Amino acid sequence: MQxxxxxxxxxxxxxxxxxxxxxxxxxxxxxxxRAKAASxxxxxxxxxxxxxxxxxxxxxxxxxxxxxxxALCQSAGVDILFTPEASDLYGDGYQTYISLESLPNHLCxxxxxxxxxxxxxxxxxxxxxxQPHIAVFGQKDYQQVLIIRRxxxxxxxxxxxxxxxxxxxxxxxxxxxRNAYLTDAQRPAARxxxxxxxxxxxxxxxGVVDVKLIVKAACLLIQSFDDTVIDYxxxxxxxxxxxxxxxxxxxxxxxxxxxxxxxxxxxTILKPDLTE
Length: 276
Fold this sequence. Notes:
Shape: globular
Radius of gyration: 19 Å
Strand order of the largest sheet: 3-2-1-4-5
Number of domains: 2
Helix content: 25-40%
Number of helices: 9
Order of helices and strands: HEHEHEHHHEHEHHEEE
Structural class: alpha/beta
CATH class of the largest domain: Alpha Beta
CATH superfamily of the largest domain: HUPs
């Protein structure tokens, strides 16, 4: 893969990469279409990265279907499908990891220690192997996008990071490979994440800027559904992820909720009316 990328770059080709863990859906495909439009050669990687899963998380059960994924990649115009094994990326004696100082100490990083160390490390490795000019990630994983952008900036990686918008189911649920775990009976509870985000923006539109009030209302909405356990509901600075007390400009609202055994995340940018 690395030799092929080097050859194509020498030919003057613009390379793009969409890294995934497979079990692809329309959200992934939208990223591929965006990357394809901005490059000559679209590379998609499928790799369920063991180093970003904790000891009690769903690495072994994470949904996989390479045959279906391959067909979807072909339909999306992927030129190269890169599917390494864990032994290819983490050989005997492997000991080098990338850790960020502050961005992982918020939101998902608090309940998933080590997760973003694994994410940053594998993305850096994929960048070195595939050598893309452009890499496209989904905005649904907002914290991940921030961390990758910071890593690229701090380590002087010559990759342009593009974030694609969150793609949703018809009922508003953010597209995710983990949605496959949900039962029909759990769908209303899962929809409460998006509903709470919409309600929060309406509160901001009506003039509510107190973060505690908005978070409390969102939590009450989510907890009104059976089978939900809130990991976090946070309103924070959109670049540093530091918690806010008052919304006086665009602010990130991010949440993580377990519906049954399925951990779901979602986010939006709350935008107050500053015209007055």
